[in-house]
Amino acid sequence: MDIVVKGRKTEVPERFRKHVAEKLNLEKIQKLDGKVMSLDVEVSKEPNPRQADRCDRVEITLRSRGPVIRAEASASDPYAALDLAAEKLDARLRKQHDKRFSRRGARRIPAAEVPDHVPGVATLNGSGASTAQEQEQAVPTKKIGSLEVQGDGPLVVREKTHVAAPMTLDQALYEMELVGHDFYLFVDSETKEPSVVYRRHAYDYGVIHLRTDTMVTENHSPEAGGTLGG
């Protein structure tokens, strides 16, 4: 297998071709990937003077029977760009090599060490049940208000019920100013639905209306469930 070096909109000097042959050691590459079919190096130059620090670009493409591996880098001269691209190629080749090597089982991790190497993995007890489920079941559950809380749960849970007469939006704004709050929950006298008025900027206010979704109500009604069950 030979290394093919070509230039795109630029000429490649013989000195650079020799440097490529020295930098990309074919014997070393074939040890990491014994199925390499071709190795191409493309050199290009950016004419924009504002990009002088990365005007030379080198792209290395390695094709084998597996996936194509490509590495590219830019620098102020082609030799520096080649060195950077070669380092990237070597790292990707080693990563691919280690992946294949571990798939063959030569680097299998003992079951007892799996949680140390694989984050978030489930661990099992002697009966084959998940220890996470055991721990979850062991945590006591208590009821705070209308919530079921495991363990310590929220620091503060407070539930309040207020009896409120329907009122207009103007009255709700007036009530909010009286209590000095930034929002006020009320029942709109026109829609008979819960609404919230809130302070925005200076004397600007906003209002949020809640409207019952009849489709959701019907799907969750006892009558609908009885019909399906009967």
Automatic annotation (TrEMBL):
Q: InterPro entries, alphabetically?
A: HPF/YfiA_ribosome-assoc (IPR050574), HPF_long/plastid (IPR034694), RHF-like (IPR036567), RHF/RaiA (IPR003489), Ribosom_S30AE_C (IPR032528), Ribosom_S30AE_C_sf (IPR038416)
Keywords, in A-Z order: Cytoplasm, Translation regulation
Q: Where is the Sigma 54 modulation/S30EA ribosomal protein C-terminal domain?
A: 154-207
- Cellular component terms per the entry's GO annotation: cytosolic small ribosomal subunit
Q: What does this protein do?
A: Required for dimerization of active 70S ribosomes into 100S ribosomes in stationary phase; 100S ribosomes are translationally inactive and sometimes present during exponential growth.
Subunit structure, interactors included: Interacts with 100S ribosomes.
Name used for this protein in its record? Ribosome hibernation promoting factor
